Amino acid sequence: MNVATARVLAGTDAAHPDGQYSTVAKWFHWITLVLMAITLPVGFVIKYIANEPFATKMVFYAVHESAGLTILFVTIARLVWRIANPPPPLPDHIPAQMRLAAGTVHWLLYLALIAQPILGFTMTNAFGFPMQGATAYLGLIDLPAVMAENQSLAETLKTLHTWVGYSIAGLLVAHIAGAVYHHAVRRDGTLMRML
């Protein structure tokens, strides 16, 4: 075992037989989960909220947009942390196909969690509703518009934003199903690495 492996497996104990993620990595993971538990449902129901009174609908937009942009910031910080502090390697008892599936889902999630807020932010700009005033970031910070109003572009971005949203939901189902499978069926230490 080399020094790098010994460092990342320092958390190995009876509850974490395959090592564990660092405390900071765990915080990033669970904060992202909470933000997604807010952002995804709100995003999926916004179109069903009555347009009048518009102030009510704006609350949903404000929550969705602020949580989404926060996911972007958390994901970037999380990736920087991951590069500087690699997670424990998957143990040898995990088959190659499962390693590939896990890696693919993880990296697609990272990509989607970066692309989706950018699509959403630019979409709102293109619709002529930058994150200012009623939809200011966290209700406090007016963000400058990055583009002029462009309805045609806005519709394209809206379509992409919608499909990436559904993709994130599918990837989350796959991620959670994998964790449950490892814990309940294989009974290995994979899930415990993040607890």
Which key features would you list for this structure?
65% helix
SSE order and pairing:
Elements: H1 3-8, H2 23-45, H3 54-84, H4 96-126, H5 151-186
Helix pairs in contact: 2-3, 3-4, 4-5
Descriptive notes:
The chain is mainly alpha-helical and 195 residues long. It contains 5 helices and no strands. α3 (54-84) crosses α4 (96-126). The two termini are 24 Å apart. The model is unreliable at 1-9 (pLDDT under 50).
Provide the gyration radius in Å.
19 Å
- Molecular shape: elongated
Please mark out the parts with pLDDT under 50 across 5 or more consecutive residues, or reply none: 1-9
- Average pLDDT works out at 88
Give the CA-CA distance, first to last residue: 24 Å
Class by SSE composition: mainly alpha
Order of helices and strands: HHHHH
Helix content: 55-70%
**Biggest sheet descriptor:** none
Number of strands: 0
Separate helix tally: 5
Beta strand %: under 5%
Quick take:
This protein has 195 residues and is an all-alpha fold.
